[in-house]
Amino acid sequence: MAETFPHIDDRMAEFIGRQHMFFVATAPLSGEGHVNLSPKGLDSFAVLDERTVAYLDLTGSGIETAAHVGENGRIVIMFCAFEGPPKIVRLHGRAEIIEPGDAEFETLLASFPPYEGVRSIVRVALERISDSCGYGVPLYEHQGQRTQLTRWAGSKADEGLAAYRAEHNRRSIDGLPGLKSPGDA
Fold first, then answer.
1. H or E stretch including 165?
2. Worst-scoring range by mean pLDDT, 90-94, 104-108, 152-156?
3. What is the DSSP letter of 116?
4. Cβ contacts of residue 61 below 8 Å, gap of 6+?
Protein backbone atom coordinates (compact mmCIF):
# COMPACT_ATOMS: atom_id res chain seq x y z
CA MET A 1 0.00 0.00 0.00
CA ALA A 2 1.03 3.58 -0.55
CA GLU A 3 2.65 5.39 2.34
CA THR A 4 3.76 9.00 2.88
CA PHE A 5 6.88 10.00 4.80
CA PRO A 6 7.91 13.16 6.67
CA HIS A 7 11.38 13.06 5.11
CA ILE A 8 13.84 10.94 3.15
CA ASP A 9 15.36 8.51 5.61
CA ASP A 10 18.54 6.47 5.11
CA ARG A 11 16.64 3.48 3.72
CA MET A 12 14.83 5.57 1.10
CA ALA A 13 18.03 7.45 0.19
CA GLU A 14 19.71 4.07 -0.34
CA PHE A 15 16.85 2.93 -2.61
CA ILE A 16 17.07 6.16 -4.62
CA GLY A 17 20.85 5.79 -4.93
CA ARG A 18 20.51 2.29 -6.40
CA GLN A 19 18.20 3.36 -9.23
CA HIS A 20 19.73 3.88 -12.67
CA MET A 21 16.90 6.06 -13.98
CA PHE A 22 14.30 8.50 -12.70
CA PHE A 23 11.47 10.47 -14.28
CA VAL A 24 10.69 14.18 -13.92
CA ALA A 25 7.22 15.61 -14.59
CA THR A 26 6.15 19.25 -14.76
CA ALA A 27 3.28 21.20 -16.28
CA PRO A 28 2.52 24.80 -17.17
CA LEU A 29 -0.27 26.67 -15.42
CA SER A 30 -2.30 26.83 -18.62
CA GLY A 31 -4.59 23.92 -19.28
CA GLU A 32 -3.75 24.42 -22.94
CA GLY A 33 -0.04 23.79 -22.34
CA HIS A 34 1.79 20.50 -22.62
CA VAL A 35 2.58 18.31 -19.61
CA ASN A 36 6.23 17.25 -19.72
CA LEU A 37 7.66 13.92 -18.58
CA SER A 38 11.40 13.32 -18.96
CA PRO A 39 13.48 10.24 -18.20
CA LYS A 40 16.87 10.94 -16.62
CA GLY A 41 19.90 8.74 -16.16
CA LEU A 42 23.61 8.88 -15.49
CA ASP A 43 24.69 9.62 -11.93
CA SER A 44 22.83 12.92 -12.00
CA PHE A 45 20.68 12.84 -8.84
CA ALA A 46 21.57 13.81 -5.27
CA VAL A 47 19.75 13.76 -1.95
CA LEU A 48 21.02 17.00 -0.39
CA ASP A 49 19.22 16.58 2.93
CA GLU A 50 16.12 14.83 4.19
CA ARG A 51 13.76 17.34 2.49
CA THR A 52 15.86 18.62 -0.43
CA VAL A 53 17.04 16.90 -3.61
CA ALA A 54 18.71 18.07 -6.80
CA TYR A 55 19.64 16.78 -10.22
CA LEU A 56 21.85 17.91 -13.07
CA ASP A 57 20.05 19.34 -16.06
CA LEU A 58 22.21 18.43 -19.02
CA THR A 59 21.92 20.24 -22.35
CA GLY A 60 19.13 18.75 -24.43
CA SER A 61 16.72 19.54 -27.21
CA GLY A 62 13.96 20.91 -25.00
CA ILE A 63 13.65 23.24 -22.04
CA GLU A 64 10.23 22.27 -20.72
CA THR A 65 11.22 21.51 -17.13
CA ALA A 66 13.06 24.80 -16.67
CA ALA A 67 10.22 26.73 -18.32
CA HIS A 68 7.53 25.13 -16.16
CA VAL A 69 9.59 25.50 -12.98
CA GLY A 70 10.23 29.14 -13.83
CA GLU A 71 6.50 29.71 -14.25
CA ASN A 72 5.11 27.81 -11.25
CA GLY A 73 7.78 25.68 -9.52
CA ARG A 74 5.70 22.46 -9.43
CA ILE A 75 7.55 19.20 -10.01
CA VAL A 76 7.37 15.50 -9.25
CA ILE A 77 10.26 13.06 -9.49
CA MET A 78 9.57 9.33 -9.68
CA PHE A 79 11.88 6.37 -9.12
CA CYS A 80 10.84 2.81 -10.08
CA ALA A 81 12.60 -0.38 -9.08
CA PHE A 82 13.23 -2.20 -12.36
CA GLU A 83 15.44 -4.71 -10.50
CA GLY A 84 14.89 -6.37 -7.13
CA PRO A 85 11.77 -5.96 -4.98
CA PRO A 86 9.00 -3.83 -6.54
CA LYS A 87 8.77 -0.24 -5.35
CA ILE A 88 7.94 3.25 -6.59
CA VAL A 89 8.99 6.48 -4.85
CA ARG A 90 7.49 9.85 -5.73
CA LEU A 91 8.97 13.15 -4.58
CA HIS A 92 6.60 16.13 -5.00
CA GLY A 93 7.86 19.61 -4.39
CA ARG A 94 8.75 23.11 -5.49
CA ALA A 95 11.77 23.41 -7.72
CA GLU A 96 14.15 26.16 -8.65
CA ILE A 97 16.62 26.32 -11.50
CA ILE A 98 20.20 27.13 -10.48
CA GLU A 99 22.23 28.23 -13.51
CA PRO A 100 25.97 28.70 -14.01
CA GLY A 101 26.79 32.11 -12.61
CA ASP A 102 24.17 31.85 -9.84
CA ALA A 103 25.72 32.16 -6.37
CA GLU A 104 25.00 28.55 -5.36
CA PHE A 105 25.83 26.82 -8.64
CA GLU A 106 29.44 25.78 -7.97
CA THR A 107 28.67 24.59 -4.44
CA LEU A 108 25.77 22.43 -5.68
CA LEU A 109 27.76 21.18 -8.67
CA ALA A 110 30.23 19.59 -6.23
CA SER A 111 27.45 17.13 -5.24
CA PHE A 112 27.71 15.42 -8.65
CA PRO A 113 30.31 13.70 -10.81
CA PRO A 114 31.66 15.93 -13.60
CA TYR A 115 29.69 15.92 -16.87
CA GLU A 116 30.02 17.89 -20.07
CA GLY A 117 27.03 20.01 -21.02
CA VAL A 118 25.56 20.89 -17.62
CA ARG A 119 23.18 23.77 -18.29
CA SER A 120 21.64 24.02 -14.81
CA ILE A 121 20.87 22.24 -11.56
CA VAL A 122 17.28 21.62 -10.55
CA ARG A 123 16.91 21.84 -6.77
CA VAL A 124 13.66 20.68 -5.17
CA ALA A 125 12.25 21.51 -1.74
CA LEU A 126 10.11 18.46 -1.03
CA GLU A 127 6.48 18.86 0.04
CA ARG A 128 5.30 15.26 -0.26
CA ILE A 129 7.34 12.06 -0.15
CA SER A 130 5.57 8.78 -0.87
CA ASP A 131 6.06 5.25 -2.02
CA SER A 132 3.82 2.60 -3.51
CA CYS A 133 4.05 -1.06 -4.38
CA GLY A 134 5.33 -1.00 -7.96
CA TYR A 135 3.80 -4.43 -8.62
CA GLY A 136 2.97 -3.44 -12.20
CA VAL A 137 6.50 -2.22 -13.04
CA PRO A 138 8.31 -4.78 -15.22
CA LEU A 139 11.71 -6.23 -14.41
CA TYR A 140 14.58 -5.00 -16.59
CA GLU A 141 18.27 -5.72 -16.51
CA HIS A 142 20.49 -2.66 -16.45
CA GLN A 143 23.26 -2.94 -19.06
CA GLY A 144 24.87 0.45 -18.55
CA GLN A 145 24.38 4.14 -19.17
CA ARG A 146 24.26 5.50 -22.70
CA THR A 147 27.19 7.73 -23.62
CA GLN A 148 25.80 9.62 -26.62
CA LEU A 149 24.68 12.73 -24.70
CA THR A 150 27.96 13.27 -22.86
CA ARG A 151 30.02 12.53 -26.01
CA TRP A 152 27.89 14.97 -28.00
CA ALA A 153 28.26 17.68 -25.35
CA GLY A 154 32.01 17.06 -25.14
CA SER A 155 32.36 17.48 -28.90
CA LYS A 156 30.61 20.88 -28.86
CA ALA A 157 32.96 22.76 -26.49
CA ASP A 158 31.65 25.75 -24.55
CA GLU A 159 30.98 27.90 -27.63
CA GLY A 160 29.07 25.16 -29.42
CA LEU A 161 26.95 24.41 -26.37
CA ALA A 162 26.20 28.11 -25.92
CA ALA A 163 25.08 28.37 -29.55
CA TYR A 164 22.93 25.25 -29.24
CA ARG A 165 21.25 26.51 -26.06
CA ALA A 166 20.65 29.92 -27.61
CA GLU A 167 18.91 28.26 -30.56
CA HIS A 168 17.01 25.46 -28.77
CA ASN A 169 16.59 26.46 -25.12
CA ARG A 170 15.17 29.99 -25.22
CA ARG A 171 11.50 28.97 -25.15
CA SER A 172 9.47 25.89 -24.34
CA ILE A 173 7.17 24.25 -26.88
CA ASP A 174 4.35 26.36 -25.37
CA GLY A 175 6.38 29.59 -25.70
CA LEU A 176 7.34 29.96 -22.03
CA PRO A 177 10.80 31.41 -21.33
CA GLY A 178 13.55 28.82 -20.80
CA LEU A 179 16.84 29.57 -19.11
CA LYS A 180 17.73 33.07 -17.94
CA SER A 181 20.88 32.93 -20.07
CA PRO A 182 20.50 30.11 -22.65
CA GLY A 183 23.47 31.20 -24.71
CA ASP A 184 25.93 31.14 -21.82
CA ALA A 185 28.06 28.06 -21.38
1. helix 148-168
2. 152-156
3. T
4. 168
